[in-house]
Amino acid sequence: MLMQNLNLKRCLRVLRVGLLVASATLALDMLTYGSVYHPLSYFYEGLSWGICQTSPVSDCPKTSTAKTSASSQSPGMVVTSHHKATEVGIKILKAGGNAVDAAVAIGYALAVVDPCCGNLGGGGFMLIHFANGKSKFINFREKAPLAATTNMYLDQKGRRIADASTQGYRAIAVPGTVMGLNQALAKYGRLSRQQVMAPAIALAETGFILETPDVRILRQGNRKFLAQPNVSKIFLKHGKPLQTGDQLVQKDLARTLRLLAKKGEQVFYQGEIGQAIVRASQQNGGILATRDFKSYQISEAAPLRCIYRGYKVLTTPLPGGGVTLCQMLNILEGYPLQKWGWETAPTLHVMLSSMLFAYSDRNTYLGDPNFVSNPVQQLISKDYAKQIRSQIPPDQAIPPEQVQQISKSLEGTNTTHYSVKDRAGNAVAVTYTINSFFGAGVIAENTGFFLNNEMDDFAIQPGVANQFKLLQGERNAIAPGKQPLSSMTPTILTQNQQVVLVTGSPGGSTIPTTVLQVILNVVDHEMPIAAAVNATRIHYQGRPNVVLTEPFGLPKPTFLSLWEMGYRVAPFYPWGAAESIWFNPQTGLTEGGRDDRKPAGSAISF
Q1: For site-directed labelling of 158, which of 6, 66, 126, 508 has its Cα 20 to 30 A away?
Q2: Alpha-carbon distance 513 to 321, whole Å?
Q3: Which positions are annotated as active-site residues?
Q4: CB 87 within 8 A of CB 603
Q5: Which pTM does this prediction carry?
Q6: 481-515 confidence digits (pLDDT tens)
Q7: Which residues lie across from 498 on neighbouring strands?
């Protein structure tokens, strides 16, 4: 006992000495660098290093942007998150197809080579700018089943049921991708459905060799694969993860694609594919019914438009993220960002403030325009932006509770974006999604494709954040046939009647801020498109009250300045994949910027 007491006293003495040394070291560090926050910079760098070692999909620090770009005097360009899909797009353009033909072919090809995120079982948006100056927005977002109810994911005490809106058949909204791609092709393409779908069918039927980036992504779904025998037989090898060099063959998906090529979308919405999904849903506790598929329709509209420093911005109307993007651009137009510089504290302060106000308004006022009235024109007006600028102090973070009005009451990061421009000057930006990695984690019978978990994009329980930490209001509550609010923001910029930028990104709630930063990087900071796309990113939505940066994303002086202003800054895994095209008016070159956060991607000129 005496020895134990002596040992305890020695331990306490060592602990006290250690604490005194640590306190003295911290005090000396603060005095030396003149900031009480300076010691946090070591934690920031340490966490950044740790994140880089464990990132599931991309390496960091970033690779050289010389490896992630293509440029050509020819105006044709395809940029996607998988080189096989990019090659398909180029093949279709060379066969005489236009940008829409290529975009549809890429959409089907990504369903094969990027199964985590490319999709037949989800939905999305297509933005088209034609060479004649006209533009079209096609909305093929998923819709809630007609049997859906506002409280379907809450228990009898009003508490959220864990995983109910993210895993399994109850999480699935009615898919729109097949109808969206097929009707876009029929209305605006040149080639036949069989021509456009043939490359995707071949990739599924004969397979393709997996490379390291493919395997890293597939490993994120191993747990989901193991839980479903019909999934594991495709994406596992004798119950073990696939390896680099293995060939991924998807016979079931090839059969589905052949049916679609032969019979069109009716086989999906009124035929055997939709029936298989309904059967699987009803056998596994879901609520999808035949009438959900028969009643599904896409819609077309004019793009949302705003102006930023003389550039015309064409982007997504509701339920997409264009309102949020335009609101941030309008606010920032009043500041000399080019003079202040990229990644400086003054620039980032007003950027973060614009994000705070825009996300607050998004979560408070916006929802499916077929169900609620939205004050869009007020939110994207220059006068409203001026009012917001008057509320932004020059060097102090705004407490989120002073801005955000939701006291009651998040969206999938594993989306896919690609950009296409043909030689005639037509441009297409497509963002589509199954929400989380591999969606709801289920494949209906032998259809071969993952189904979405898009129901989680609704405000499942107003006042409680979703999987992406978005705090949303009653306007985005579940209702039968309703589309959940989306952050997807495919965007095209024009100047002097010419397309200069085609962009967009996956990333859930970070999508509008990613697109914002690509625009600011090329317009204000005059970066080449590859540098603009691959520059480190920052994101802030107020709740949670943390500014996210990519690893090593901020210079130390800027990091410290933001903390001193009242921001709480932390590193996070790299996000997004802003596959973009830029026409450089000075050089006459069309430049493709491939985002190296998805290293399987490529940019190819035509």
Answers
A1: 508
A2: 10
A3: 415
A4: no
A5: 0.92
A6: 999 999 999 999 999 989 999 999 999 999 999 99
A7: 495
